[in-house]
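Deliverable D2.4 — example input (structure tokens):
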């Protein structure tokens, strides 16, 4: 699998590159660093309205599917802060091409 493959996180029929569909519409992408530090660009949503409504939990589901991570122990970090599942991405100032760090919490850890 090519870890730099674009478009794996989005379910729309557009090609994987960034598209502008007018002033308010574009494909929003994020740079996601997997637990080993490898960066992958994922397509998050198709327009600004969807971006405003996207939660951390929805992002986690996209990342888990894209990076093939199983279980419920995925933690997302942005700007040095852990992201809570119910919060909106925009409340953390996450924008197009923001860098998200992932960590997998192991059971029995400290």
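Example output (designed residues):
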């Amino acid at each position: 699998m090519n870890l730099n493959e674009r478009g794996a996180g989005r379910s729309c029929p557009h090609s994987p590159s960034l598209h502008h569909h007018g002033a308010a519409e574009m494909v929003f992408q994020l740079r996601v660093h997997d637990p080993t530090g490898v960066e992958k660009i994922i397509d998050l949503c198709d327009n600004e309205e969807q971006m405003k409504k996207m939660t951390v939990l929805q992002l986690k589901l996209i990342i888990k599917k894209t990076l093939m991570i199983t279980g419920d122990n995925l933690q997302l970090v942005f700007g040095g802060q852990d992201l809570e599942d119910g919060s909106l991405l925009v409340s953390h100032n996450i924008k197009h091409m923001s860098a998200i760090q992932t960590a997998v919490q192991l059971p029995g850890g400290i």
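Helices lie at 48-53, 56-67.
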